[in-house]
Design brief:
It is found in: Membrane. The protein is mainly alpha-helical. The chain is 66% helix and 0% strand. Helix 1 packs across helix 4. The relative contact order is 0.13.
Length: 82
């Protein structure tokens, strides 16, 4: 496989899909990354773990519908052009 722009875009789509399918109760809470672990005090800067949890929740919320369309386009392109 050549290192092309399409390969980079496909990698980004696969990475976004991987984030989007992480289930908070079934997977993230088992490794200690559930919703209850991210509670911080007022004025405290959130740590890396809290920021990653916020990113995962945001990707799941915002990218759910666009990912369906982008995945469909990628599947059609792969079927047409191999």
């Amino acid at each position: 496989m050549a290192f092309t722009l399409y390969a980079l875009i496909q990698t980004a789509i696969l990475f976004t899909n991987a984030i989007a399918v992480l289930h908070e109760e079934r997977f993230l809470s088992k490794i200690g990354w559930g919703a209850e672990q991210s509670i911080g005090g007022f004025g405290d800067e959130p740590g890396i773990k809290a920021q990653l949890l916020n990113l995962i929740r945001s990707v799941r919320t915002v990218m759910r519908v666009p990912l369906i369309a982008v995945n469909s386009v990628c599947i059609v392109l792969l079927l047409l052009f191999g």
